[in-house]
Amino acid sequence: MSFLNLDGVSKYYGDFGALIDMTLSVERGEFISLLGPSGCGKTTTLQAIAGLIAVTRGRMTLDGKDITNLPVNQRGLGIVFQSYALFPHMTVAENVSFGLEMRKIPKHERDSRVAQMLELVHLDALAGRYPRELSGGQRQRVAIARALVISPPVLLLDEPLSNLDAKLREEMQFELRRIQRKVGTTTIMVTHDQAEALSISDRVVVMEAGRATQVDAPYRLYEHPKSEFISGFVGKTNLLAGTVARGAAGAEAVLGAGQRVRVDAGDFTDGAHVTVCLRPEKLFFTDEARGTLAGRVEERFFLGSQWLYRVSSPLGELEVSAANDGSAPVEEQTNVHLAWADDVARVVAKAP
Amino acid sequence: MSTATNAASRATPYALSLPAIALFALMVLLPLALTGVLSFQEYDAEKGVGAGFTLKSYAHVLGDSYYYEIFFRTGWIAALVTLICVLVGAPEAYILSRMGKPWRSIFLLVILAPLLVSVVVRAFGWSLLLGPSGIVNQIFGAMGIGVVKMLYTPTAVVVALVHVMLPFMVIPVWTSLQKLDPMVENAALSLNASQWTVMRRIVLPQITPGLLSGSLIVFGLSASAFAIPGLLGGRRLKMVATLIYDEYLHELNWPLGAAIALALLVVNLVVMLSYNAVLEGGYAKRMGRS
User: Fold this and answer.
1) Does any domain span residue B53?
2) What's the pLDDT tens digit per position in B109-135?
3) Which H helix or E strand runs over B43?
């Protein structure tokens, strides 16, 4: 049995299912992200694990013990709240020390553990400050230190980076991962930012309308999304209508204008109508001889590290991205030919 | 920008606050100054208020234990009312802040409702309830306790004052509770704090400013209350405000009344400022308010 188990956990408000049959196994030391749009149930999942809400159905175990009905102040999990929820009337050191005081840790040990933790989050110089005297990033680190100092079996992070500006958020992503690796605490993070989820998690749980729809490692999730929604939510994608054609050489998807793409058709039967996902960075410009698809560049956007083109083609409008490798980009309103490698296209069920 | 418009723009705030300053000077400072002047004037039972400067009225107040007794009674009644208002008002405000949508506004209205009724009417209401044949004594009688004298005792005055003053405690505490992030309590709970510790260590320190201002308002208003002690304290149980009224309108000794009024003002100020200094000092250090 895994370290933390959720077995069919559900939360209903009247008839509305905020969380439906959530089943998840988390290994010790794992970093899991719950990813999804707002209202998908990711925060509800976190609150259920934290004990902040009572679940309607299901069972949760932590390290073999049933915690389903344990009140929040007996679960002993570390929680970092979206608003950080620091104690405004206490200094940084007092904030961090509070959890140890509640555990009746003697003063000298408390002081050394607080100092150690503040050093870990690089706040040792600010121990005497009050939360209102700190920047957003510093407050965030106080919140992490306060949650981690009690050596919780599980650290829960509720959109921990959403209140930070873009530059700081990126820094804190790596900082968070560094701290988590160092202390090795099992961590569950809620986020709506797919880049954040992909960059720091061991596994990502994609949630949609109260249900977990895919649980996978970041790379696998990105490369093998299980539905149209996931392929669109995690990264950019071109969705094309197609039909599965199974032959002796393997499966192919036949696209709108008769193009054939080699795919792993999975369980789809011959002739099934499917959606083919092609990521913009998998498409590239080439000459007519090697091109699979002719098109015309309608618009071009500069994104710094790459160029993003909007190309009209017989299959509809496609997004194509190309690395900014220093060579001249393709001009707008020129005719181009597109190609992609074998096996980069993914087939998913057509969304109803 | 030219210096002329610069000077004009600097004068604007003063010009804008002029009406308020004028009103304040006319309605508060002037009468206060006149009272001050009056308190130093001669008084003779035959000839009334005379000219000249004397400290006789003050000497009279300071030299008679009768006045000390009344000042002391006023002080402890105001302090007790403040204490009860803190003990009742703070939990009330907390419960109010935790109520759901329709109930919160309904109960807020219930708490504020006493303010919409004249103090005199409320005092009469209490005298009907607490009188020898009032509802409370009828209930006591039915329970076999017998008639308890409540009207014209400090109990009646304290009960009625608490009723009148409670909104002045609930509102400031409620306001400071509004600024509280509810997640902060959850954060403390997640760190293994008990519900009681959360109250004591997390919520209470954060509503201190509300309790502080509420206490100051309640104490100040209670110490200078007139209608309630006048109607529920009766002729014999005097508080300072009723005493001043008697000196002015029954004894017609205006200088003595003025002296007592100023003495009350000074005592009230001293109590409030020292209370403020003690509590606010500790609070300011923690919250960094200056």
Assistant:
1) no
2) 888 888 888 888 988 899 889 888 888
3) strand B43-44
Residue in B190, B205, B286 nearest the CB of A72: B190
Count of alpha carbons within 13 angstroms of residue B74, beta-carbon side = 31
State how many domains chain B has: 2
Contact A311/B at CB under 8 A: no
Q: If you average pLDDT over residues B181-207, what whole number do you get? A: 91
Residue B22 lies in a domain: yes
B138: in domain: yes
Rounded to whole angstroms, the Cα distance separating A183 from A149 reads 10
Q: Which residues of chain A have pLDDT under 70?
A: none
Residues of B in contact with A130 (CB under 8 A): 286-288
| Interface contact A88-B192, CB threshold 8 A | no
**Digit-coded pLDDT (tens) for B14-38:** 889 999 999 999 999 999 999 999 8
Residue whose entry in the numeric block shows the structure tokens 């504020």: B112
Distance CA A275, CA B100 (A): 47
What residues make up the domain containing B209? 67-287
All residues of chain B having their beta carbon less than 8 Å from the beta carbon of residue A78 are 190
> How distant, in Å, are the alpha carbons of A80, A111, A138 from that of B186?
10, 24, 21
Q: What is the pLDDT of residues A297-340, one digit of tens each?
A: 999 999 989 999 999 988 888 999 999 988 888 888 989 998 88
Place B285 in a pLDDT band, splitting at 50, 70 and 90: low
Contacting residues of B for A105, CB less than 8 Å apart: none
Distances (CA, A) of B131 to B114, B143, B149: 21, 17, 8
Q: Tell me the residues of B at the A interface, defined by beta carbons under 8 Å apart.
A: 181, 183-184, 186-195, 197, 201-202, 205-206, 286-288
**Confidence grade of residue B289 (pLDDT, cut at 50, 70, 90):** very low
Complex confidence, ipTM: 0.81
Please state the CATH superfamily assignment of the domain spanning residues A236-349 in this structure.
Nucleic acid-binding proteins (2.40.50.140)
CA pair distance B179, B189, nearest whole angstrom = 19
Tens-place pLDDT, residues B70-96: 999 999 999 999 999 999 999 999 999
Tell me the domain boundaries of chain A.
4-228, 236-349
Of the options 3.40.50.2300, 3.40.640.10, 3.40.50.300, 3.30.230.10, the CATH number for the domain spanning A4-228: 3.40.50.300
Q: What are the CB-based long-range contacts (under 8 Å, 24+) for A316-322?
A: A316/A240, A316/A256, A318/A238, A318/A278, A318/A280, A318/A283, A319/A236, A319/A238, A319/A280, A320/A280, A320/A283, A320/A284, A320/A285, A321/A236, A321/A280, A321/A281, A321/A283, A322/A281, A322/A284, A322/A285
The pLDDT mean for chain A works out to: 89
